[in-house]
Design goal:
It is a single chain. This protein is an alpha+beta fold and 696 residues long. It has 5 domains: 86 residues, no CATH class; 156 residues, Rossmann fold (3-Layer(aba) Sandwich); 89 residues, Immunoglobulins (Immunoglobulin-like, Sandwich), CATH 2.60.40; 205 residues, Rossmann fold (3-Layer(aba) Sandwich); 79 residues, no CATH class. The chain is built from 13 helices and 35 strands. The chain has an 8-stranded mixed β-sheet. Helix 2 packs antiparallel against helix 13, helix 3 crosses helix 12 and helix 4 packs antiparallel against helix 5. It is elongated, with a radius of gyration of 41 Å. The protein starts with a strand and ends with a helix. 39% of the residues are buried.
Length: 696
């Protein structure tokens, strides 16, 4: 027998206490009174019985109780064979972690992994419990069973490798969490994977609890060869037949052997557009450029196909391309506008390249709700807000995410009956013509509207002269001020939309700002900001989250208002339930291919960039797998096990398990029995000792 805390055996010295008590016990004597002791001779006597042990059973009981308690505190256990016997007995709880990432689709990896998982499950005994957990980008508990392996094997049979990436850290943490509540004396994790190096990050510092056995089973093969499509660039240019797109594919060879004469095909909307052949050296990348193809006004689905190899999942790459991309702008003038009220503004919008702007001019007494909802940015150009249905539509559109630009002139009015959108309160007209006009004195160059002017020689905003402006009091966020301190540009957030107020006009009467070189880039930046324009993404990656309401505005089928209902069809044809939370509805991207998103009947829609769709067309999202899954370089399973196993424990790929002294003592728990027995003996001793005088 061994002890976990041998120093506490010193407590065995307490055994001397009952012996001393027995030897020095004091007896009460009867006192006899004598009238005088003068005639008695003093004779020294000794009591032999006081030094004799009178109750041997009571002494043995006391000694045994103290000895057992002292041994319990020293934490005894049976080493070697004793521990092995303890490990071999008792219930067993097993967690089978089965890798379902994209790389498991290589050649025969998945079939091998299923066989190993079934073998592990079938090793469970009648009193054992098991759980099958599938992991990749996400973690899914496939089945749990405490009475048989049928359900677990069925879950393994149904599983298939997905499109996710390999992540060992979260999977091991999840398995450890499942074992925390297990009452079994033997706890084991069986990790079945190809052990991709890209899936393990030692900096994650994952540690399994003491006593948990980790058995790695690798299905990786030596000498794997894999080539993959790593990307697809799409360059647009104007041609005689419309917009021409030149696609260039990047092909990566992840193996140590060359790839020779592999065909790569480019499909556009399901039709073969071009084909090339490619040869790549070991560990290198090659680019393949296809012949240009023409696209119309709708979004085109572009797919490159490489002749399949052992891992077909990364031999296909999807992208989405849209001709140009225009942000619709509605300019609302007053009921009696001057001929050139919107001249400079519309000309500035016309010369934009990417993205382009599609301005439409109307009057405040003629604008309709349809006009407003069809625009990504609305401009109130020296005009009062529309009233009635159009006014309510304006407030609704801004709250849903549309941008509003307000230029304030003589014809601008804003009453309490108008929508509460203006960033401040509109004041009187300030005339500075007699002082040769004012200039911009303060500009917040961190604001998106002025950010491009922050670098040297990017344009002089102070060159414009301001002769008249409207006062804005109690502003929200001040973006720019005139040199006299008055508010020049103010901003306010309304719902998901943004409102910017310019305290002067966009004509040449109240200022000469439209005549300066900085006017055109200023207008473009303001429109980008208000329209929430971002460069359209040609594709996304599995594991990302897509929010249709965050799509930049540009076409009628696109923008879906925040929180509005919509339906999602995955590339495999199944309906995906959006995830709701905090007023948003998002789509988790878990498959490769093209997702289709359609607004539900009656849902509020606006416009969305990048789709290039017409009314009735779905919003498209191209999704590809993570590039890291194509690199099949493995990590040594023993290295991963050593990183996550608690100090002093080890496991090997063959399934061996060395039990530490702490683990052996914890499993046997001999101290508990010794302590209970010792306390019970003390109770018996006290009972016997209290009855001895009466028995005598």
């Amino acid at each position: 027998m061994s002890f976990l805390a041998p120093a506490l055996l010193a407590a065995l010295l307490a055994i001397a206490i009952p012996i001393v008590v027995h030897l020095v016990q004091r007896e009460r004597r009867t006192v006899v009174a004598f009238p005088s002791l003068m005639f008695l001779r003093r004779i020294p006597t000794q009591s032999v019985k006081r030094r004799a042990i009178r109750h041997w059973p009571l002494l043995a009981l006391r000694i045994l109780a103290l000895a057992l308690i002292a041994l319990a505190f020293a934490r005894p256990f049976l080493p070697a064979s004793g521990m092995a016997a303890g490990a071999a007995g008792g219930a067993r709880q097993m967690i089978v972690l089965l890798d379902t990432s994209a790389s498991m689709g290589y050649s025969g990896h998945w079939a091998h992994a299923q066989d190993e998982a079934r073998r592990a499950i079938r090793s469970l005994g009648p009193g054992d419990g098991g759980t099958v957990v599938f992991f990749g980008t996400d973690i899914e508990v496939g089945a749990r069973s405490e009475a048989g392996s049928g359900a677990l094997v069925a879950a393994i049979d149904r599983a298939r490798p997905g499109s996710g990436i390999t992540r060992y850290g979260p999977a091991l943490r999840a398995a450890a969490g499942l074992l925390e509540s297990a009452a079994a004396s033997r706890r084991e994790i069986v990790l079945i994977s190809d052990f991709q190096k890209s899936g393990w990050d030692p900096a994650q510092e994952v540690k399994l609890p003491a006593g948990v056995r980790l058995t790695p089973i690798s299905v990786a093969e030596s000498g794997t060869a894999n080539a993959a499509l790593a990307g697809l660039s799409l360059v647009q240019q104007a041609g005689a037949k419309g917009v021409l797109v030149t696609a260039t594919a990047r092909v990566m060879n992840y193996s140590t052997r060359p790839v020779t004469d592999r065909e790569i095909v480019l499909d556009v909307d399901g039709h073969r557009a071009d084909a090339r052949r490619v040869s790549i050296g070991p560990g290198t990348m090659a680019t393949v450029t296809f012949a240009p193809f023409a696209i119309g006004g709708r979004a085109a689905r572009v797919t490159a196909h490489l002749t399949p190899d052992g891992l077909p999942a990364d031999d296909v790459f999807h992208a989405l391309v849209t001709a140009g991309g225009q942000v619709p702008v509605l300019i609302i003038e007053s009921a009696n506008p001057a001929p050139d009220d919107s001249l400079y503004l519309s000309r500035a919008l016309d010369v934009a390249a990417t993205p382009g702007f599609a301005p439409r001019i109307t009057r405040t007494d003629r604008v309709t709700p349809e006009d407003i909802f069809a625009a990504a940015v609305i401009v109130l150009n020296d005009a009062r807000p529309p009233s009635g249905l159009a006014g309510r539509a304006l407030a609704s559109a801004v709250n849903a995410g549309a941008g509003l630009l307000v230029s304030l002139g003589d014809r601008s009015t804003w009453t309490s009956a108008d929508p509460d959108l203006l960033p401040g309160q509109l004041g009187a007209t300030v005339d500075r013509a007699g002082t040769s006009g004012g200039t911009l004195g303060y500009v917040d160059f961190s604001h998106p509207a002025f950010e491009i002017f922050s670098s040297p020689r990017s344009g002089d905003l102070t060159a414009a002269r301001i002769f008249r402006y409207r006062a804005i009091t109690a502003p929200g966020k001040v973006v720019a001020r005139f040199d006299d301190g008055a508010v020049a540009v103010a901003e306010r957030k309304v719902g998901r939309g943004t409102v910017i107020a310019w305290a002067s006009t966009f004509d040449s009467y109240w200022n000469d700002f439209p005549l300066k070189p900085v006017f055109v880039p200023f207008v473009h930046q303001v429109m980008h900001h208000l329209g929430r324009y971002v460069e359209p993404r040609a594709w996304y990656t599995v594991g990302e989250i897509y929010d249709p309401a965050d799509a930049p505005p540009a076409s009628p089928a696109g923008r879906i208002s925040a929180g509005s209902a919509f339906t999602v069809l995955s590339p495999s044809g199944r309906t995906v339930e959006p995830v709701s939370g905090a007023g948003t509805r998002t789509v988790p991207l878990t498959e490769t291919g093209f997702y289709e998103i359609r607004p539900a009947a009656g849902a509020a829609t606006g416009m969305s960039a990048g789709t290039g769709a017409s009314a009735g067309d779905p919003m498209l999202v191209a999704v590809n797998g993570a590039a890291g899954e194509s690199d099949l370089s493995p990590i040594d399973p023993a290295e991963l096990v050593a990183s996550v196993t608690a100090s002093g424990a080890a496991a090997d790929a063959a399934g061996g398990h060395e039990i530490t002294a702490e683990e052996g003592e914890r499993r046997q728990s001999l101290w508990w029995y010794l302590l209970v027995t010792g306390l019970l003996l003390l109770v018996i001793e006290a009972t016997v000792a209290s009855r001895l005088p009466r028995i005598a």
